[in-house]
Write a structure and sequence with these properties.
This protein is α/β, with parallel strands linked by helices. The protein has 22 helices and 17 strands. Among the domains are: 226 residues, 3-Layer(aba) Sandwich (Rossmann fold); 70 residues, no CATH class. Helix content is 33%, strand content 12%. The strands form 5 sheets. The protein has a 6-stranded mixed sheet with strand order 2-1-3-4-5-6. The protein has a 4-stranded parallel sheet with strand order 14-15-16-17, covered by helices on one side. Helix 6 runs antiparallel to helix 7, helix 13 runs parallel beside helix 14 and helix 14 packs parallel to helix 15.
Length: 666
């Protein structure tokens, strides 16, 4: 542990709460985020429980309590009569400092129970910039940072979320990763851990049984990476017999009846999103080539309108929120979305409850939705074109038209909207300065479109994020811009708009750069991660907290060229660090999509493929290789990644060899 982190001996529950309230909370910002006691929190008798789970979010309370996945896990585990699940969040630096000074361990909000006393410590992680916060939370909980240093007296540390699809930089600190969707896997993991603990197994044997007996569990200690002299991965060696390779992604097939909590906690303090949100659809049909979420959640599944309306009514009754959010990766692709919005408004309008869609995809449906979305209150319209030129949209496989975008915005202005928020990405493959200047021109056009109705220009907020190549996407091999080029291109965008009501917001290049390093990295980054944390790195996703000098020193101490990890273009025959968990779309499909992007070719959506032959991605039953893939994954490998079965699967992964120049895949 860090100096000054010795825990107050024996304090827990009410005694620990009194200690924290007396010596810590009066001296920190937003103390209410550490107190619990909110409407709909769940408190159970720990002594009567079979499984105790601390659910951890490695960021602030405001961020964690806005996470739908976090809410689902909390509700799912607590729905079981013999499982208790309580929440804990990363303490802000002022809170961490006071906790260390006054010997307070990391505790859960519901009962102030020290996190180290739970059976499971489950991290829900959506963003690589939470890795250092994970180390803070482990340390404050009195749990050894390294997984190999823990024994059966410590909780089993598991991690899920989108970052689990590129797990290696944090692999030394996590016992097991849960790959894929959690509604079914979460219960299986909890029950299996309790079952195996009763057998008196060592921690090593428990984890071995866990990854063999629960589909979707990756235990990194059982896989050894070997490297070529140039630093690229030469091979992955499973260290025990019959280990899954790759670990099979879990996906909920019956999404209609999948668990979704209506009795959600209502925070006392302001959070990022203050609404009752319903996931109406999972997966995406569009195949945007930069989008990790769209690729790793294939295929698309919808909840019926009747189920959505039922959840909305119950959620309103249980929480009292005045806004219902309809969530998915592309809500406007929900079949019958306009009718669903109308039916929800018919029920909620007289109650003063608004219905919102956080982001709309450009298309003809955009011209029909604003009327329904504005019936109760007229907020801002949020649209994600991602690129401002149609040429670049074709490259990223988001072939939307400017005239559809303008028509939708004009329709919104007719119904009282006066603010449009646009999301763009900077640094996409194939981008040039004309594409950057197009962001300003398009934003200006949208603002001025409102003047055609005899009204002042609309307020337009253009939010421009930095493209980071993500695992499991066609662009996972693409290079990433360096920080100086990002800054230059941001300047081009800022100078491209002429309308005063248009505001451009860009993301800090340093944060995006660090995200790229850790989202594309391998297990060798783990030592630098810990060093950066020990040198003071915390909340790296927050511009005012990020310490790039600390990271420069951490990388230097371990001889790591961060540019090599973050910026370089990967070779198509290179074994990528996420090979152990790369089980969604096939590598052959990703490579074909990359080639089509280079030619500016558009690939039809899965919805269009209902009429025409689909571009096989191997993620669903429509693929002729799907059955073969299932058969292979049902027979886990023994021995090396050079195993004959592994080599036969080169439609999914590059063939691994220890000879120079690894052979390519599909």
């Amino acid at each position: 542990m860090l100096a000054g982190s010795k825990h107050a001996t024996g304090l827990r529950g009410k005694e620990l709460r009194r200690h924290v309230e007396a010596h810590i909370l009066p001296f920190v910002t937003t103390p209410a985020q550490y107190t619990g006691g909110e409407h709909n929190q769940v408190i159970k008798d720990h002594a009567a429980m079979r499984v105790k789970i601390a659910l951890a979010f490695p960021d602030t309370y405001a961020m964690g309590m806005s996470s739908t996945g976090f809410k689902v896990l909390y509700g799912l585990w607590n729905e079981q009569p013999d499982i208790v699940c309580e929440r804990t969040f990363a303490p802000w630096p002022d809170m961490e400092k006071r906790m260390r000074e006054h010997g307070a361990p990391l505790f859960t909000l519901e009962t102030y129970t020290p996190v180290g006393e739970y059976d499971l410590l489950a991290f829900s992680v959506a963003y690589e910039m939470g890795f250092t916060n994970m180390l803070t939370m482990l340390d404050l909980a009195g749990i050894p940072l390294k997984a190999e240093a823990r024994d059966m007296s410590h909780p089993i540390v598991i991690m899920g979320g989108h970052t689990a699809f590129a797990p290696e930089p944090i692999a030394d600190y996590v016992d097991a990763f849960c790959i894929g969707e959690g509604e079914e896997m979460a219960l299986e993991v909890a029950n299996k851990v309790v079952e195996l603990k009763k057998l008196g197994l060592t921690r090593e044997e428990l984890l071995y049984r866990l990854c063999r007996e629960v589909e979707g569990v990756y235990v990194p200690r059982f896989y050894r990476f070997e490297y070529f002299p140039d630093g690229t991965i030469a091979d992955v060696i499973p260290l025990r017999n019959r280990l899954p390779f790759p670990v099979k992604r879990r996906a909920v097939k019956d999404f209609e009846n999948a668990f979704f909590p209506t009795k959600q906690i209502v925070p006392y303090v302001e959070t990022v999103f203050e609404r009752f949100s319903i996931e109406i659809m999972r997966g995406c049909v569009n195949g945007c080539r930069f989008c990790q979420a769209g690729m790793i959640t294939r295929g698309q599944r919808q909840r019926s309108p009747e189920k959505v309306i039922e959840l909305a009514k119950k959620g309103f009754e249980e929480t009292g929120y005045d806004e219902i959010g309809l969530l998915s990766l592309s809500s406007s692709d929900y079949v019958g979305i306009t009718d669903l919005a109308r039916r929800l408004n018919d029920y909620f309008e007289d109650r003063g409850i608004g219905v919102s869609l956080p982001s709309l995809r450009i298309g003809t449906v955009l011209a029909t939705l604003p009327k329904e979305m504005a019936r109760v209150r007229k907020g801002g319209l949020t649209i994600a074109p991602e690129a401002a030129s149609e040429r670049l949209r074709n490259i990223i496989n988001k072939p939307v038209r400017d005239d559809h975008l303008l028509a939708g915005c004009i329709e919104a202005f007719k119904h009282g909207y006066d603010h449009v928020k646009l999301y763009f990405m900077l640094g996409l493959p194939g981008e040039n300065d004309d594409d950057l200047r197009a962001i300003g021109r398009l934003s200006d056009k949208i603002a001025l479109a409102r003047t055609h109705l005899g009204k002042p220009p609309a307020k337009v907020s253009a939010s421009v994020s930095s493209f980071v190549p993500k695992a499991g996407t066609p662009f996972q091999w693409a290079p990433m811009l360096d920080r100086e080029e990002w800054r230059r291109r941001q300047g081009v965008i800022r100078s491209s708009t002429r309308v005063k009501s248009v505001k451009v917001k860009v993301h800090a290049p340093d944060c995006s750069y660090l995200e790229g390093v850790f989202s594309r990295g391998d297990r060798r980054l783990g030592a630098a991660l810990e060093t950066g944390w020990r040198l003071g790195a915390r909340f790296d996703g927050w511009d005012d907290q990020l310490k790039m000098d600390v990271w420069a020193e951490a990388f230097k101490q371990h001889g790591i060229d961060a540019d090599w990890y973050g910026l370089r273009e990967r070779k198509l025959d290179e074994i990528l660090p996420w090979v152990c968990v790369n089980d969604t779309v096939s590598e052959g499909f990703l490579k074909r999509e990359l080639k089509r992007a280079e030619k500016g070719m558009v690939t039809q959506t899965c919805a269009d493929a209902d009429k025409d032959p689909c571009f096989i991605c191997d993620a669903c039953e429509r693929s002729p290789l799907f059955a073969k893939k299932e058969e292979m994954l049902a027979a886990p490998l023994a021995g090396s990644a050079r195993d004959e079965k592994y080599a036969a699967k080169n439609w999914t992964f590059p063939k691994s060899t220890l000879a120079a120049g690894a052979a390519g895949g599909a």
